[in-house]
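U., I forgot to send this yesterday:
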Amino acid sequence: MIALALTVLVLLAFQLLMPKPPPRPATVNTQPAVAQTQPANTPTPAPVDDRPKLGEVIGESSERTLELTIGTIGEPGSYRARFTNRGAQLLELKLANFVDQVGLRDEDRLAPEHWTTLLASADSAGVKTGSMVWRSDASSTDLERGPIDSALWRMRPIPNETNPTGVEFDLAQGSGVRLIKRLRFEPGTYRIQLELELENLALEGTRRIGYLFTPAEVVPLESGDRFYVEPQAIAAARSREDSAAKKDKPPTAKSVPRDDRGKEVTGRFEIPEGDVSFAGVHNKYFAYLMRGADPYSQASIVTTRWRRLRDDGYAKTHPDKAADNWRFMASDLVLEFDVPPRGETRKYAYAIYSGPKD
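Result:
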């Protein structure tokens, strides 16, 4: 309970600084800064889509990773982040000012293998997990020419390779729409700016479409504390009445803990129907949480769901507990975007808290 309270306290400052969202429209250093590698194995390509191409096609022809070292090692806001262009995903995020052992020498504290892992990638039901994942839902799949969460996006560090503070991905599959995802780390803080953009390259008219976004898919167990079940998915919201009355009442938060037996594998958070304040995943000491950065973007978050994931690695090393391997948690945000008129771009901005609870 204390750890959950700390999570909510962290987010109160994170959330209360933001204005209330408008009414929602009807639903329809010593480390190299940049390192790039080619993976050993490439997944089997998706079937070819033979529909006519609309607009330009943007992407990459081979899978690769991009590693960024952010900030001054040992200080708040210092990270090592590893991205992949496959699905424009964040595979790993390490906090470079927290280490995994007490009493390390100064030189050992500079070694990435000792930095605390906040986000990781793991095999779950035979699929490699990732974070910051953008997926289509039923209302937007007609704009795909293959799943966007496994496509090869164009990927580059921003603003440049010499002093990167983030990464930009973009993808156009010949469906008339270009998707842009941009992450920027704020220097000296535990905040990450996330921007999702839709550019209408060739579509006539406008429409409202839905997407799913998963900020964190694997937050590792941190403490090994038998009395604190981790990780936990969390979300918070204010009721429509409270939002309409412009009350400064804190949002109601609900945390769903890991359940190795997986009696229920997905569900809705028991939070008020109304304006979603934030959602994400936390363990005993750290949290990774997402909210809208402005009223317009906050209103794009329609609802949230929690989800349990299998840990294939644990099942292999503990065959006697292979059926009880639901060891990871995720929160999925349901987003609704407006496709802009042809030739225009629409941007949605979000803020991520990625650091300690206290």
